[in-house]
UniProtKB/TrEMBL annotation:
Pfam families: Glyco_transf_4 (PF13439), Glycos_transf_1 (PF00534). Residues 190-348 form the Glycosyl transferase family domain. Residues 12-171 form the Glycosyltransferase subfamily 4-like N-terminal domain. InterPro entries: Glyco_trans_1, Glyco_trans_4-like_N. It comes from the Bacteria. GO terms for molecular function: glycosyltransferase activity. This is Glycosyltransferase family 1 protein.
Amino acid sequence: MKILYTLNSKDPGGMEQHVLDLVTQMLARGHQVFVWCNGGIIYDWYIKAGAKVIQKTIKNDLDVGYIKDLKKFLQENNIELVHAHELKAVTNTLIAAFLAGVKIRISHQHTPFTNWQVAKSKRLIYDLFYSILISLLGSKEVALTQSIKQAKIKAGIPTQKLVVIPNGVDIYKFFVAENEKAMYKREVCKKYAIDPTTLIIGNLSRATAEKGQDLLLKAFAKLIDDKAIEREKYTLLICGGGELESSLWELAGTLGIKDRVVITGRFDDGLKIKFYSTFDYFVFPTLAEGFGIVLIEALIAGLPVVCSDLEVLKEVGANYPVYFKTGDWEDLVSKLADLISLPGELDKTGQINHVKDTYSMEKFGENYDKLYRSLA
């Protein structure tokens, strides 16, 4: 089957990783895979994975030039299935695919609009527009969890249009021997001038408003001020970059913790395992999430995890993370202080088995292959 994935992003994140996993899994199952995306690191990801990649940017919410070019591409290459990700790509791709006569048109808004950090009136408009679009032009809309499916039904998407397929993770690359972990930690600490004897509280996500790193900075500063942790014995390592990177640095300076904070900026994907090997604790203070791939990565890496109590994260993480009230940095202080001071017995085996049994990459690939073939 000839498959086209479309997205309008160039910065690495959960959605972009999701598309990379789809590319890899569908190529392994004998499909021919194309990708339309922006430039940047992810363009190279998809090329390296073996897809035929075209660099295209969607300039407007409704981009007539993009639609015309995509319609032509779909017809010339006899594309049988399109799978579009996020609002702009979904809107323009479904229209182009309909005009080109492509019968299988799959959409995926990863984070429901109800969780977007925008005015309520805008969220309602997005919900109305998107539900009409999917009802008229979509074959299937993907939800990553049951809770996200219910949110999409509430937003007006017909139940019969929805299919639940969780993300997957390549679990075996997170099984790192202790001596290798120590080597990775030395490497990361040297690269970012971190004292390797400190305990490292880690976060891994792009620097955008919905990821809540400002809450983590405030909580970390409060832990130091309250002497819940010794200033010189802890480092906060935020792995990722994005539009708020400079703002986060400014906030760290205002809070007086700039000397205890490292923000890496955008990084090569090969560093991800090394970062997880470096962390002693993982904190995920996100305000909005469609799934939370880094949550299951941290769990499979065997880390103690503190994260927001979003319904989707509680569904994905089960009883293994420590949850704090979403958006409440003071509650994050309390939960993180408890975890550090009273660590207890971490059920590493339980959380690793939870990820292995539920979110394996093999199961992820099988589910999508089955969906695609069922619609053909």
